[in-house]
Amino acid sequence: MHDDVNYGQVMLDRFEYQAGEDEDELVWDGQAWYGGDTHRLLVASEGEAVVSGGDGGELESFDVQYANRFSAFWDLKAGLGYQTTFGPGPDRDRASALVGLQGLAPYWFEVDANLRVSDDGDVAAELEGEYDWNLTQRLILQGRAETSYAFHEVSDFGVGEGVNGLTTGLRLRYEIWRELAPYVGVSWRKQFGDTADLAEAEGEDTEATAVVAGIRVWF
Questions:
Q1: What would the pLDDT profile of 165-202 be if each residue is shown by its tens digit?
Q2: Mind giving me the DSSP string for 148-168?
Q3: How far is it, in rounded angstroms, from Cα 16 to Cα 19?
Q4: Contact in structure between 157 and 150 (CB atoms under 8 Å)
């Protein structure tokens, strides 16, 4: 371990077009970090923009975090985040503080878990997981799932109290180089409980399936 040597990486894990039944979206999910083996600065962003069949979109998160690698496979994170919606009607935004864990669980599951507290005192727990099946040296099938639990209702963002929903997907990528891999796949989203009730009140679907095509790149 040589923490006096700093280096970094930019990873755009998902940059994809999602073609759904009612609307199409452009979705992104990426992270950049800089630092040593133990102490790192992380910048992460995730969100989507509607490109046809609707208007607007959401910057789900833009987080700046400090990460401490306390073991060979795990980082403890803490930082500040920002979220906003855009499109028809008034824009809505909020800031947050967060703590979390990121790393490689047993059996090679990549896990990212956060506890987020907004500037209004709303609390939510977020969990994402990924797993790669190496079909060949270049062809990889990735399974992905994410969910969250809100301890308070935030109707401005369409979030009800309790488990908000589940998003899962399968993406088959081909690594032209390790750093560049186009992919295709399918994504499925289902909202639950109070969050589904809020969506139905706005005339929105609570379940959606989309075909996706995108690119994964890092350097």
A1: 999 999 999 999 999 999 999 999 999 999 999 989 88
A2: EEESS-BGGGTB-SEEEEEEE
A3: 10
A4: no
